[in-house]
Write a structure and sequence with these properties.
By secondary structure, this protein is α+β, with helices and mostly antiparallel strands. Helices cover 25% and strands 31% of the residues. The chain contains 2 helices and 10 strands. It has helices spanning 12-28, 32-60, and strands spanning 66-71, 76-81, 87-92, 102-106, 112-117, 127-131, 137-142, 152-156, 160-165, 178-183. The chain is elongated. Bound molecules: calcium ion (CA) (4 copies). One calcium ion is lined by residues 143-145, 147, 149, 151.
Length: 184
Amino acid sequence: MQAGVTYPIPFAGAISTSWTRVLITFRREPGTMRRIIIVLVVLLIAAICWAVFERKKSERSQSRFVDYEYDLPRNMIIGRWKTSGRLAQIAFDLNEDLEDDSVVIYGSNENVSTVLVDEDHNGLFEVTYVYSPAEVLLTRLEDIGQDGFTEEYTRFTADSVFVYRDANEDSNFPDSELVSSRRR
Ligand SMILES: [Ca+2]
Ligand SMILES: [Ca+2]
Ligand SMILES: [Ca+2]
Ligand SMILES: [Ca+2]
């Protein structure tokens, strides 16, 4: 390499020239060409969205034991046991981001047994409600911080509500961890 001599980078000029031509053409013909490109981009985005939607739908519809049907108008997925046809679960997507944010699980008598809720719609269920076989609410569990560990336990009786906090993080809720109680 000699000082003061400029060595051209192969093809760089050609690439730059052809891109310049495209840009000039695009600016000179703002009508047709721009419209075609916008339509193509819109179609491409629509195709990608549809592919993602279909994939998510089919992922949620595959199970060995449960048949799922997608109820599009009500935006929910109904699952029934393949052997008996009984209701197994209903999943709701309230904010329409293709992630379930509420799942109602049914017992063998088709009463509600458990409800999972993703209150902040981040794809993680943090609240669980558990019901008796007669569909009476027994407990509410909350995973504060959504790290997989339950820190708050609420117990419902016929006339009262007791709330416990797991102060020592051992996943047990003795009477000493009762933080509040009230009449229902
Ligand atoms: Ca959702
Ligand atoms: Ca969540
Ligand atoms: Ca937690
Ligand atoms: Ca504890």
